[in-house]
């Protein structure tokens, strides 16, 4: 018993101890995609808005050959792809697939030409059938976690017997397959392989560099525990509880919602949301069976479930609303982004589900007490609830393919390159429009080696509107770049940018240039 | 009447920023001669009292001897020169590269001077300005008087915290 309690605690700790993770987006590329260069660059640098892990990175040179000697170097937010020295003239393509911290892949291509452009094409995306498989596996996983584990928890804690567990047992089997398949499919997706590669080890290893691998293992463990609790009465209640906690922990460990800042809020919210779904949806199948059998024991169970379900549904709504607000950032995203559309459909289905639940709770369950003929109506209503829940799983599984609005960054932030004999400064402004902007300063010497500065300051002015220089000091990030975050540029126009890099106590390098800031 | 004097005071304050830098008192010096560099410190760093003054000695300036100052410690940092200089028949290849006064406290309300004796070698180009970058450290904050205008930049391009400079005159 003590061991089981310790296991449950461990599940919880693993669930919350993973670091900051979210959905990455490409911020800048050097050389810029589409550029024509006089000679081959030493390296192609991809900068993301957060640390990423390289998955598959491929180089196709100007002669159309795939080159495998491109050396990939990842440091925090930046991935640098060293170019072979003998890159021929023509258009080269670097296609990348990196793993963002929430365990999802980000893919794209950088195209640049040496000398003159040629007709090199980026490699075609090979994932035609893969996304469908990933989606199906995820629905299976949800079935196992919510219908399966939730059903076993209902049987062991609310009913006290394993009557009508057929659906839950089947869901657990489906869920175990779904979770295992998700693991391998995630790997093939991250590495940009075809489903045939599932027979080789790499796609099974790569999920574990992300939070998704451990989360799936926790899900598998939870479903196994629930299966044991179904057949083995000795520690069934304890095992069912551990499996139940595991559902929440698995969901809180990975994905868009659990990894959104502030994690102190989103992870517990996701955890509770998962528990609530499992409690509610898991009970539906066994309840439907019990109602159709319509024994004397059904009514007390129904009443017990209803009394707990009320606060659970309230917690579900509250946590769901919290997560939605954090992910969307603004109401218009509900219809303007794919993520928001999925959420809108989910909300509509949830409203239907709530209406049915209210009908069951306030009309059909009391009716059952007086008249056993009400049973078929209640049973139909519960089955309909189950069908809607399945629909919600199918819709929510689609979130895997859409970035949440909070992570969407414009693809081409404003960039300016300032050059003198002594130094080269690359300045990135995102989004590069009037309003709040983030600046990234990349300081290099005249020989393009990193410039070690003690301090860096950014000074901005807009002479045409009479805005006097405003000075902000930059912070050195772990990526080696200097960052100035949340700079308010009140107007569009030709802003004057001055960067001072303090090289020694007595010496600083000052470079300046103008940038054209677009209207919001 | 008091109103008008108030206005005059405002005008005077507004016009004074040019003098609010750390500067050299003697604005001209002759190449090949000695130069008494007097650094005038008119204020602290944004109101905070000055606790340390560091002066970088430019290349071609030798035989540096800081004047001791009551209430302040004076330290020098020695190092190699970029080239050798002849000084009273001796070849000098190293010497003082930085002078620092520390341990004192100069209130923002007061003015003070920090003095050193130097020799300007023949290697310096006449009709240019020789800059002595100064780092003024305060109880809170630092002011760096280290900006040296790029060659050819006009006087209209006024920097915010220029290094104190002295105009070099040719040998008579």
UniProtKB/TrEMBL annotation, chain A:
GO terms for biological process: copper ion transport; response to copper ion. It is found in: Cell membrane. Residues 301-399 form the Copper resistance protein D domain. Residues 1-24 form the signal peptide. InterPro entries: CopC/D, CopC_dom, Cu-R_CopD_dom, Cu-Rt/internalin_Ig-like, Ig_E-set. One of its GO terms (cellular component) is plasma membrane. It is a multi-pass membrane protein. This is Copper-binding protein. It comes from Bradyrhizobium centrolobii.
Automatic annotation (TrEMBL), chain B:
The keyword Ligase does not apply. Residues 21-168 form the YncI copper-binding domain. Gene3D superfamilies: Uncharacterised protein YcnI-like PF07987, DUF1775. CDD domains: YcnI_like. Residues 1-20 form the signal peptide. Residues 151-172 are annotated as: Disordered. Keywords: Signal. InterPro entries: YcnI-copper_dom, YcnI-like_sf. This is YncI copper-binding domain-containing protein.
């Amino acid at each position: 018993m003590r061991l089981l309690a310790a296991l449950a605690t461990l599940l919880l700790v693993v669930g919350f101890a993973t670091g900051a993770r979210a959905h990455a987006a490409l911020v800048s590329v050097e050389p810029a995609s589409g550029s024509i260069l006089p000679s081959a660059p030493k390296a192609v640098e991809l900068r993301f808005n957060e640390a990423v892990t390289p998955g598959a990175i491929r180089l196709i040179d100007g002669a159309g050959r795939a080159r495998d000697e491109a050396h990939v170097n990842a440091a925090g937010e930046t991935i640098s792809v060293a170019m072979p020295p003998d890159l021929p003239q023509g258009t080269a393509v670097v296609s990348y697939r990196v793993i963002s911290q929430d365990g999802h892949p980000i893919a794209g291509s950088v195209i640049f030409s040496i000398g003159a452009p040629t007709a090199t094409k980026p490699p075609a995306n090979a994932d035609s059938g893969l996304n469908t498989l990933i989606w199906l596996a995820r629905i299976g996983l949800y079935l196992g976690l919510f219908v399966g584990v939730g059903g076993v928890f209902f049987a062991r804690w609310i009913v006290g017997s394993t009557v009508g567990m057929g659906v839950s047992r089947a869901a657990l089997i489906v869920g175990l397959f779904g979770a295992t398949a998700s693991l391998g499919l995630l790997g093939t997706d991250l590495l940009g392989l075809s489903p045939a590669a599932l027979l080789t080890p790499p796609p099974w290893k790569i999920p574990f560099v992300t939070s998704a691998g451990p989360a799936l293992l926790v899900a598998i463990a939870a479903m196994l525990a629930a299966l044991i609790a179904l057949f083995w009465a000795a520690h069934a209640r304890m095992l069912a509880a551990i499996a139940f906690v595991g559902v929440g922990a698995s969901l809180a460990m990975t994905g868009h919602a659990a990894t959104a800042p502030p994690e102190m809020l989103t992870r517990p919210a996701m955890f509770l949301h998962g528990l609530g779904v499992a409690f509610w949806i898991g009970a539906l199948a066994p309840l439907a069976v019990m109602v159709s059998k319509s024994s004397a024991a059904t009514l007390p169970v129904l009443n017990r479930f209803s009394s707990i379900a009320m606060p659970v549904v309230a917690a579900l709504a509250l946590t769901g609303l919290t997560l939605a607000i954090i992910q969307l950032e603004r109401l218009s995203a509900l219809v303007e982004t794919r993520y928001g559309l999925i959420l809108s459909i989910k909300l509509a289905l949830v409203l239907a589900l709530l209406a049915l639940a209210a009908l069951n709770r306030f009309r059909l369950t009391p009716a059952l007490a007086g008249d056993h003929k009400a049973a078929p109506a209640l049973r139909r209503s519960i089955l309909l609830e189950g069908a809607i829940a399945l629909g919600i799983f199918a819709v929510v599984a689609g979130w895997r393919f859409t970035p949440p609005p909070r992570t969407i960054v414009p693809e081409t932030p404003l960039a300016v390159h300032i050059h003198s004999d002594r130094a080269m400064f690359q300045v990135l402004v995102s989004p590069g429009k009037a309003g709040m902007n983030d600046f990234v300063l990349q300081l290099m010497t005249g020989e393009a080696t990193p410039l070690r500065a003690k301090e860096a300051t950014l000074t901005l002015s807009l002479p045409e509107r009479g805005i006097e220089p405003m000075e902000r000091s930059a912070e050195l990030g772990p990526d080696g770049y200097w960052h100035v975050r949340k700079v308010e540029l009140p107007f569009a126009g030709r802003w004057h940018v001055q960067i001072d890099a303090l090289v020694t106590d007595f010496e600083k390098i000052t470079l300046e240039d103008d940038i054209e800031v677009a209207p919001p | 009447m008091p109103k008008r004097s108030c206005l005059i005071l405002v005008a005077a304050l507004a016009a004074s920023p040019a003098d609010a830098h750390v500067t050299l008192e003697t604005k001209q010096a002759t190449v090949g001669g000695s130069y008494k560099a007097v650094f005038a410190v008119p204020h602290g760093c944004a109101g905070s009292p000055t606790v340390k003054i560091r002066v970088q000695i430019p290349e071609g300036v030798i035989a540096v001897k800081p004047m001791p100052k009551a209430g302040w410690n004076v330290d020098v940092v020695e190092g190699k020169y970029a080239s050798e200089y002849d000084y009273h028949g001796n070849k000098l290849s190293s010497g003082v590269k930085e002078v620092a006064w520390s341990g004192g406290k100069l209130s923002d309300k007061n003015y003070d001077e920090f003095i050193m004796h130097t020799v300007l070698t023949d290697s310096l180009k006449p009709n240019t300005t020789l800059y002595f970058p100064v780092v003024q450290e305060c109880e809170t904050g630092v002011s760096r008087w280290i900006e040296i205008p790029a060659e050819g930049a006009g006087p209209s391009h006024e920097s915010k915290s220029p290094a104190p400079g002295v105009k070099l005159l040719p040998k008579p």
